[in-house]
Amino acid sequence: MTEPIISVQDISIRFHRSRRHRSLRDLLFKGESGVRAGEFWGLRHISFDVQPGEAIGVVGRNGQGKSTLLKTIAGVLIPDEGRVNVNGGVAPLIEITGGFVGDLTVRDNIYLAAGLHGMGKKQIAASFEEIVEFAEIEDFVDTPYKHLSSGMKVRVAFSVVSRLDEPIMLVDEVLAVGDRAFREKCFERIDEMLSQGRTLFMVSHSEANLTRFCTRGLYLREGTLVLDGPIQEVVDQYFSDSGDEAALRRRHERRMRRMRRLGLLNEEDEEEDDGDEDNLRTVV
Amino acid sequence: MVDSSYTRSPVARMRAIWGARKILFLLVRRDLKVRYANSVLGYMWTVLDPLLMSFVYWAMFSILFARNVPGDDPYIVFLLAGMLPWQWFNSTVSQSAKALRSSSRLIRSTNLPREIWILRVVASNGVEFLFSIPVLAGFLIAYQVPLHWNMLVTFPLAIVLMAVLLTGIGLGLSVLTVMVPDLDRLVKIFLRLFFYASPVLYSVTKLPPDLRWVYVANPVADILQMFRSGIFPHYLEWTHVGYTAVVSLLVLALGWWLFARLERTVLKEL
């Protein structure tokens, strides 16, 4: 067994529910643990090790601590208890457009953002062409970043961050943006990086993506790690747990359709059929 | 490299900051670039504000109240030599109070030592200060004011002390403003009052002797005197310099401690 590349040791993170946080005096002079009224554990006693080259998918409903876990591994959140050790650089595809400035041109921005993530000047110059080509923005290299469309912005950002030569990638649902063709390109890029032996850490709700890239799954519920196992097992568990949710959504869609039929909603709002048509007839 | 325990030891923090020095340069360069990218006058803005203010005060005190010029002669040189470092102090303090909030997107997407975001404000305003020095030099030549040799020591030393003091204030203030947003307004008011309470417009030597200790106690006043002592050598007093150095280091230690203590909570708030 080799040395783990990510080692998460019993971490917990506390958040507060209300607007008020603890008084400054408490924060400064008391190292107290535990939660008080109005506080809750966003993550509680999470422990796991990741070996180099593993691809891990994190699942769980909204607000159960997936992004918090990713941010803690990226080092942009500090756990209240426990410890995270990451032996290597991280390419965080979390809030990827964060390092970009609207007033500067795309070219300047690529240099700046790549530099902020630790790339050297020569290195950037060497992969500049590749970055531009991947983002398909050859015609806009000298346009101020703010004038790009939002899809283009994400394309540039993804293209820069995915070019970082780091052994660990963190992906937090950024792939939901961008058109279909570009998304496919992103997936190919991730595949390519995986085949180079990098470690992937991914948050997603899409079963297809999870099973395509990941080998191991982590299932978070209410801040605790419920299941850590092969991805298919974890995904199955997750979907069977959230079954109620899916039923609820179907019922909502049915109601929308009925309203549309009565002329209360615009036809434009129509969503794609999900094969529920038969059900619908019996209800209406 | 992420090791959450590095939040504890100052040595590890120092090492992390040193490791990110290239990125700090990059950020400072970016700040200057952004500041000048969209403006027609560009560099002029760096000097225009203190220059115009200096002219206003110069006109007021050496034309309107000509009998009681509150500073040394030539008064415009005296004013500028105080106004330019004051500008550095003023803009750094007000910007560093907002530093963490205004770069929150960057903080959330990159794993850099968080002190960088304050050091960057101190440094980029410091560079702007240096850029504005040629204007002062121009006035020195125009009025044929000789420089004293001690400026070779006092000028760099004053810059270092100012940077240390500002880093301390900035580190402390930046985390406190995230926790107590009202502080931002308070800082603005305080800075305006502090401007008149510091010897920018007037010289300490023209004040009643009973009051002088207040100015000796104020480290900013001492630093301003140091900046001026290359032109007006009678301001140089090494005991004051020593006192300022101690106070600046203490402020840095306190600010850094506050920063380290509140960092974890602040990250959740951003």
From TrEMBL, chain A:
<feature type="domain" description="ABC transporter">
    <location>
        <begin position="22"/>
        <end position="247"/>
    </location>
</feature>
<dbReference type="InterPro" id="IPR027417">
    <property type="entry name" value="P-loop_NTPase"/>
</dbReference>
<dbReference type="InterPro" id="IPR050683">
    <property type="entry name" value="Bact_Polysacc_Export_ATP-bd"/>
</dbReference>
<comment type="similarity">
    <text>Belongs to the ABC transporter superfamily.</text>
</comment>
<dbReference type="InterPro" id="IPR015860">
    <property type="entry name" value="ABC_transpr_TagH-like"/>
</dbReference>
<protein>
    <submittedName>
        <fullName>ABC transporter ATP-binding protein</fullName>
    </submittedName>
</protein>
<dbReference type="Pfam" id="PF00005">
    <property type="entry name" value="ABC_tran"/>
</dbReference>
<dbReference type="GO" id="GO:0140359">
    <property type="term" value="F:ABC-type transporter activity"/>
</dbReference>
<keyword id="KW-0547">Nucleotide-binding</keyword>
<dbReference type="InterPro" id="IPR003593">
    <property type="entry name" value="AAA+_ATPase"/>
</dbReference>
<dbReference type="GO" id="GO:0016887">
    <property type="term" value="F:ATP hydrolysis activity"/>
</dbReference>
<dbReference type="InterPro" id="IPR003439">
    <property type="entry name" value="ABC_transporter-like_ATP-bd"/>
</dbReference>
<keyword id="KW-0813">Transport</keyword>
<dbReference type="GO" id="GO:0005524">
    <property type="term" value="F:ATP binding"/>
</dbReference>
<dbReference type="InterPro" id="IPR017871">
    <property type="entry name" value="ABC_transporter-like_CS"/>
</dbReference>
<dbReference type="GO" id="GO:0016020">
    <property type="term" value="C:membrane"/>
</dbReference>
<keyword id="KW-0067">ATP-binding</keyword>
TrEMBL record, chain B:
<dbReference type="InterPro" id="IPR000412">
    <property type="entry name" value="ABC_2_transport"/>
</dbReference>
<feature type="transmembrane region" description="Helical">
    <location>
        <begin position="241"/>
        <end position="260"/>
    </location>
</feature>
<keyword id="KW-0813">Transport</keyword>
<dbReference type="InterPro" id="IPR047817">
    <property type="entry name" value="ABC2_TM_bact-type"/>
</dbReference>
<keyword id="KW-1003">Cell membrane</keyword>
<keyword id="KW-0997">Cell inner membrane</keyword>
<protein>
    <recommendedName>
        <fullName>Transport permease protein</fullName>
    </recommendedName>
</protein>
<feature type="transmembrane region" description="Helical">
    <location>
        <begin position="40"/>
        <end position="63"/>
    </location>
</feature>
<keyword id="KW-1133">Transmembrane helix</keyword>
<dbReference type="Pfam" id="PF01061">
    <property type="entry name" value="ABC2_membrane"/>
</dbReference>
<feature type="transmembrane region" description="Helical">
    <location>
        <begin position="155"/>
        <end position="177"/>
    </location>
</feature>
<feature type="transmembrane region" description="Helical">
    <location>
        <begin position="75"/>
        <end position="97"/>
    </location>
</feature>
<dbReference type="InterPro" id="IPR013525">
    <property type="entry name" value="ABC2_TM"/>
</dbReference>
<feature type="transmembrane region" description="Helical">
    <location>
        <begin position="189"/>
        <end position="205"/>
    </location>
</feature>
<keyword id="KW-0812">Transmembrane</keyword>
<feature type="transmembrane region" description="Helical">
    <location>
        <begin position="117"/>
        <end position="143"/>
    </location>
</feature>
<comment type="similarity">
    <text>Belongs to the ABC-2 integral membrane protein family.</text>
</comment>
<keyword id="KW-0472">Membrane</keyword>
<keyword id="KW-0046">Antibiotic resistance</keyword>
<feature type="domain" description="ABC transmembrane type-2">
    <location>
        <begin position="41"/>
        <end position="262"/>
    </location>
</feature>
